[in-house]
Queue: 2 jobs
Job 1
Amino acid sequence: MITIDGPSGSGKGTVTQRVAARLGWRVLDSGALYRLVGHAVDRRNIDFNNENEISDLAASLDVIFEDKKVLLDGVDVTDAIRTEAAGNNASKVAAMPGVRAALLDWQRDYVQQPGLVADGRDMGTTVFPAARVKIFLTASPQERAVRRYKQLKEKGLPANLAALTSDIEERDARDRSRAASPLVAAEDALEIDSTVLSIDEVVNRILSEAQRVYAIPL
Ligand code: DC
């Protein structure tokens, strides 16, 4: 088990995929689960203040992960949950203890041999506290906004750097200050600042940590 936590745009998604591919391990993209809940709330016109209804919804979500696609109630939402608006809705529902509790077992069920790389905010602190390799990946807010900008442009989605920077700062503040599982490094996490590191450098650092702890042949 490797947990990779950190703020949005720190490169967690890409790094997680690459580390998992190198090891032949499964991936848990926990942010996708919060994005799915946020999207479902939006689609069903549920009030974002109605924590009880949203928590019930999170516990009964009809989701299918199919190859690289995600279906919600049978509808392909793969791209819809990747927009900035979906990220913001995810961050709102992620602040609700009832939602976090509803998603806990779902996330733990992802554990599978030979191993799991879990990407999120509280993988090392709350969901998999016994993991032996915990990474906390950061980067400056400016660098993260630029990365997100490039990602959106590559996908042909609309992007505005100033708006992205303030969105990232707002989302960071909400994720760090919430009472339920705030974004914080686990005490035993290895912190990696990726501001001036390439993706390969980050991946190699994590792989050598995994090798050191688990004696995995690479
Ligand atoms: O990693 P992401 O951008 O897809 O996450 C979307 C939102 O979900 C993010 O604002 C914080 C929240 N989240 C969380 O609270 N806990 C997680 N384990 C993963 C994501």
Job 2
Amino acid sequence: MTVTRFAPSPTGSLHAGNIRTALVNWLFARQQQGEFILRIDDTDQARSSDANAFGIDADLTWLGLDYDARYSQSRRFALYDAALARLAAAGRAYRAYETPEQLDLKRRVQAGQGLPPVYDRAALALTEADHAGFAARGVSPHWRFRLDTAAPVAWHDLVRGAAHVDPASLSDPVVRRADGTWLYMLPSVVDDIDMGVTTVVRGEDHVTNSGVQLQMFAALGAAPPALAHLPLLAGTDAALSKRTGSEGVAAWRDAGIEPAAVRAFLARLGTGQPIEPADDAALIAGFDFAAFGRATVRFDPAELAALNAKTVHGLTFAAVADRLPAGMTAAAWEAVRGNLSTVAEAAEWWQVVTGPLAATADAADVAFLADARDRLAVLSWTLGVWTEWTAALKAATGRKGRALFMPLRRALTARDHGPEMAALLPLIGRDAALARLDAARLAAADRALYIDAVPPEVR
Ligand code: GLU
């Protein structure tokens, strides 16, 4: 069975880049009818917080990304201890004592000799007596994983194709600090083994880590997972890191972005597939690692907003009813949704339907509005009333196009643009429509009096 995991460090809130990583893990797990795990990578307890971890849960809930299991690394230290002991027994982990200053000095010497800043493994030469000496002085070791530098580590990346990392160019990574705290690298492998993770999907900033971690899987006697490294999103991962606060769920929620629009957008951003409203079934069925390009992708909030508007236009009344103003009907939602950028904007149009409105009209339309009112008053009130009414007015007055429709739209909605009047008029209702036409005619007459009374240069 396919098992994926999303493994954020709770050092801030999620941003578009790691939300996409979560989404891709979820899509693949759902497509394969596998499991999607949330793993909170909180080994760095100084920078992690429960508030951030709960925020990640809340964000995933809002995004509609349900997970099948949830773990926190801070409760799993015993497993990491055991794994380190095994690596040490097998000669793949060793104790070292260099201070940051000593390591820095080594690197400067190497730079002076034109050598890469790779740890020289001096600690491998320490004897048990040396270790005892450090212990007697109260100096604790940090632990390094001993890389096998004989050959490059190669794998078939589900996104990048043939991939490899040369361990000879890397320092043996520190896996545990002298104070006993864990760094990311080994706990992640231990958990991926323990949780049966079959596919690791993450950003391409982890490619080098993957080379190291594949050796850790082997050293712990485990089969490696499949690996997929997604290109980073520009404007999020790099320019706007999660610590400086970039676009994420809070900003999207405030802007009226629908979770379904976020899913449809991030599922296909950077793939050859069209970015258009799509339900989860379509996103899951169409998911394909091979569709992702290799290039960094720009995340443009304006494109997300555009997809959001298209998504809103397709939402059913049932899907939004609990977010609409009290009394707003299915017919009203269907009349206005095509004009909305966000669901919240429906309230403005419902206000236009229910009133009150400030009447606006042109001086030249006094007679037309009077005529329009009288003709509407005698029509039977059907769903086709707008068509019937405007056809009669056109025949009687010779007006057409804008001259015919704009005074009516203004009188009935106090706006120049908006949803189809044929749908709005039945919602406004007969009595309110007649009252608005009366008010508009009076406003037009006032305007005419004013124009007569006040010379153009002082108007
Ligand atoms: N905690 C790591 C991060 O947030 C997880 C990387 C991984 O998926 O293994 O980058």
